[in-house]
Amino acid sequence: MVAVEVYLKIAGISIRLKSRFSLKPFPVERLNRGYLHFVLKKPVKNPDIDLQLEIVNKLPVYKKKTILFQTKRDEKELGINLRSRGKRRSVVIWEISRVGGRYMLSGGASGRREYSVDLGPDFKSGIAFVMPEGRLGKIDKWNLTQVTHGFLQILLIHYLAYHRKGIMMHAVGVKDGLSGDLFFGPTQSGKSTMARIWHRNTQAVILNDDRIAMTKKGKRFFIHGTPWNGDFRDYTPMQAGSAALGAAFFLDGHTVQNQARTIFHTELFSALFPQTLSVFWDKSSADFISGFLTDMARHVMCYHLKFADNEEIVNYVRSLRKNRSFEPALRI
After folding, report:
1. Peptide bond into 27 cis (omega under 30)
2. What are the residues whose beta carbons fall under 8 Å from the beta carbon of 270, sequence distance 6 or more?
3. pTM for this prediction
4. Could you tell me the CA-to-CA distances from 98 to 46, 102, 106, 244, 297 in Å, in that order?
5. Distance between CA atoms of 172 and 181, rounded to whole angstroms?
6. What is the tens place of the pLDDT at every residue in 152-190?
7. How far is CA 105 from CA 69, 80, 159, 189, in A?
8. At what angle do helices 191-201 and 312-321 cross, to 10 degrees?
9. pLDDT in tens, 90-115
10. What domains can be seen in the chain, in order of their start residue?
11. Checking DSSP bridges between strand 179-184 and strand 205-208, what pairing results, if any?
């Protein structure tokens, strides 16, 4: 018996979550911070990803599994103490394993297993087992954040790469009229600052300040908002919108006067790839992501950008985007 079905759409990918357990009422203020605009009002007949959700007091354990990839964090970063013999430990946040012909995605934000998702070989369907919120034994309802902030982002990264549909990046996405701008770079490079400037001084839509999905149709690239925002939340509710990518900017820190230069092939990949959420364990998916980034260099204006922390950067970026004399960073 199915008690509830929830349909989401992120970067053009439709997702159905179905469960025999009821969905907890979601506070309106939290819905407006990232999720409401991704929830569909009408069901989708044939969703791209179809998941059955089960609440359990004990997650399934698979002894005969092959670990393919793990993401770890230091226990100090998580604010926990799991020291053994005085040594600081790293904690597995999530891992993907192969069990027979299927994949198992498991993990939890605190380093303790909070979910385990049994997925088909094409990442299109599966059963998600999640631990109940609060005390054990009380299995009755589930929360949408258990899925979206639990495993859905990781699943979507794998789905996009496996089906050759797109990639996910650490980046700011801005929809300025009919055109979109992508701002990417390492931590402290100014991504959140850039998002704030555009939000406070323009009518542009901030698609996201931390996670942007990218897809391609023909020779055109598109950026899409996602529910996974960073530190800057003033622009929320986040938009489930998209825009054709007009230009991409690698943020190279702050300066007194705005400066930009074209990114050439010799440095383009090294700038883009570290900001891409890749599928390292699967060669085919990794090759697709590399090819996607290389193809992006052929068709999208890409710049190194140092910028002054004021509204003048808006017109500066707009003028660069409109520069029709741009020469592609990679010539074949």
Report:
1. no
2. none
3. 0.90
4. 26, 6, 11, 36, 34
5. 8
6. 999 999 999 999 999 999 999 999 998 999 999 988 888
7. 10, 23, 13, 32
8. 100
9. 889 999 999 999 999 999 877 788 99
10. 4-162 (no CATH), 166-321 (3.40.50)
11. unpaired
